[in-house]
Amino acid sequence: MMRAWILPMLLVLCGSAVATGQMFNGSPGTAAALFLAFLALAGVNSPLIFPRSVGAREAQRRSVADGRPIVFWRPGCKYCVRLRIRLGRSARQLLWVNIWRDPAGAAAVRAANDGNETVPTVVVAGQPHTNPHPAWVREQLSSSA
Q1: Structural domain containing residue 35
Q2: Does any domain span residue 50?
């Protein structure tokens, strides 16, 4: 779990260093703006923004049982962040699989994308869809409920 926090913590540390440099240069406004930008990047890349990941096998078992879509994602992916943010609270209804933590999930993504680990890959009713539009995913959620 600690590994998931490395990038966000590095972003906060770098933001602190850059802001401190700007403060010493006499630009407190720029320092504050840069620090806030680094904090935002850290937040977006933190484990807080994504629902808790499950393993690919567990996600597939649950999806068969209740029909919920599965989202294969990885930390740092701007398209995954876009999907998560645009889905809002409804993102909690999806089953999220972090392909960097689950080799079976990475294999499923490669199988669906001609050997590439292209994410987000959303599996609905056994059919993979690579980088779908968030509105389409929201429609799938409403039809599976």
Answers
A1: 2-44
A2: no
- Token pair belonging to 94: 């999806």
Q: Tokens representing 144?
A: 């599976």
Q: Which residues pair with 73 in a beta bridge?
A: 98
Contact indicator for 53, 61 with CB cutoff of 8 Å: no
Residue for token pair 């703006």: 33
CB count in 10 Å sphere of residue 92: 10
CA-CA distance, 50 to 27, in Å (whole number)? 35
Residue 49 phi/psi, 5° resolution? -80, -25
How confident is the model over 40-52, as pLDDT tens digits?
888 877 777 767 7
Contact 69, 122 (CB under 8 A): yes
pTM over 0.70: yes
Q: Within a domain: residue 49?
A: no
Task: Say yes or no to pLDDT of 111 above 60.
Answer: yes
